[in-house]
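Before the break, one more example. Copy the sequence into your notebook; we will annotate it together after we see the structure.
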Amino acid sequence: MKKEVEQAKRDYMAGMKYRDISTKYNIPLNTLKSWKRRYDWQRGSKKKTQMKARGAPIEEKGAPLNTIQELEDSTLTEKQKLFCMYYLQRFNATWAYQKAYQVDQRTAEVAGSRLLRNVKVKKELDVLKQQQAVDLYLDANDILKEYAKQATASLGDVLDYKVYEEVLTDEEGMPFLDTDGNPIKRHQADVFLKPSDEIDWSVIQDLHVGKDGLIVKLYDKQKALHELVDRLPKPVNEDVEEDTFLKAIRDSVHQIKGEDD
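Here is what the structure looks like once it is written out:
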């Protein structure tokens, strides 16, 4: 078995397709794909820049090399492969069908939805989505942790300030005095960004300089909390007070954030 794996890997790394390797060594396609994932066969920096149907190139934006290889080795028609490629870019069946089949929007709305239910296409898309998740190293827990960071972030994580006293003066620069003859002072504060390496930029939605100075906008804390609440388990005891349940949620959020840090 080890010898077969090594031979198949050598041919795969040389650029041979799954189907050709399968025929050469009489190994099932699914077995080859399983070996590829298990032993992490990577073809390095080699890239294919376009996939053609009737000579028309399409951009592979958002489509990793493994996804392209998976499509090429499938039994779908060229148009169906194009549809899958476009669908993985926006997950919009109408747009993907328009791009792949060059039809008007009304036709694409009906045909795109129908093609999305095609058994072979649906099965291929399921495989490709799993492959994309592997290529992106992204899962539901990663998304949950991002919401946790947004829900617990504050401006104090981004901004710092310096407080000092300032003497009030008139137009000629002379200080205003109180009834005892002492200069009148007021507290001032300068607000500024923390050093770049101390900021978690993933919690910032917008940052720019407006007419009144620096403007920092974090992601919607309430929305992030709502997303987390929807994903956290409900209390087992229905008699638990709401405040207790919310406290448990906040504790869970802080625990998730601590694990991420």
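The CA atoms of residues 69 and 103 lie 27 Å apart. The radius of gyration is 29 Å. Try to locate both features in your own notes.
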